[in-house]
Amino acid sequence: MTLPSLNKYLRYFHEQIPLFRQNKYVQILVLRETKSYAIFTTEGDALDTEQLQAGYTDTNAKKTIDRVVMFKRKQIAPERRTGKALLRQFGLVGDGNGEPKSSPKACYLMEGMCGECPDCVLYGFAAVQGESSQKSRLLTDSAFTLRSYTQIQKMIKLNAIQDKTEGGVAGSAFAERDTLIPQVFLPCVETLVDVTPDEFVYVLGNILQTTRYGAEANREGYIRNHVVGISFGNVEKLSNLDLTQRLYDKLAGEGQLADALHLSQFINADGTDGVILEVFEELLSALPGHSLAMPNPELKALLNEVYSIYNELDNSQDFLTRLDTAARSYANTKNGRSRN
Ligand SMILES: [Zn+2]
Fold it and tell me: What are the residues whose beta carbon lies below 5 Å from ligand 1 (ion)?
């Protein structure tokens, strides 16, 4: 039942969700691209920035730039919501109407996580009453923009005119928002540890199908996630900042960072080569530990297999039901053990 493209990589996965760590890593390289104005503020109205080393080459290593930060919670929370909504659509997680909070299917992000559904078991949860907690098997980090803050931000005025009959501008509220412009790229890695092939497909599905990220619902921006590489191994090699700084070196060296970036500057239209894959392979071979990158044609085939699950409702339902059964059986085993 595993996707055919994963057959040669089964040694990097578990048949069943394991109770103990074995450090089987799968790293997904994602290039996030803003397709509209986006706001990644945590508090206040300013974008979060960090002054960081521009790159590693001699000239770039001495230079620092202010990079806009997309914190990890801002990346993962929307993806969890995508997956959870799908599970709910097929009745695998409660919809919050009807079932009591004690129902095994009721699961609410933040306030009452069930500890048994695929989301809780994979992405983790804090201790639930009477049960142990679950560490996330998905590791992520904050992401950083390639170009500097001043190149990719804009103050946008929100003009909220109150609809009052007395007219005039007295009731108008002006607010300026520090906003990220479209076509900003953030290289990211999502790392999975000790997962089953189905859990990996679930995470890929969540990455590929999530489009809204950012501040509160009414200020979210559209982001397109390009899955550009996958590596398997027993160590965690790729980090977001490393990728950003190495990409910076390549693109700055060719003078490409002065103007807006295009996807074609990272990956060739046919999906072969491209700067981001060069950097990906450089990092894998430079760092210690076993790793294996999935060749590009295989990655394409894998993504098509994932689409064929998610493009059809029946396939989605079958897949998610199987995923749900496995998660609940793992949770029962784990809880049974911790009670003994
Ligand atoms: Zn849950």
Answer: 107, 113-114, 117, 120
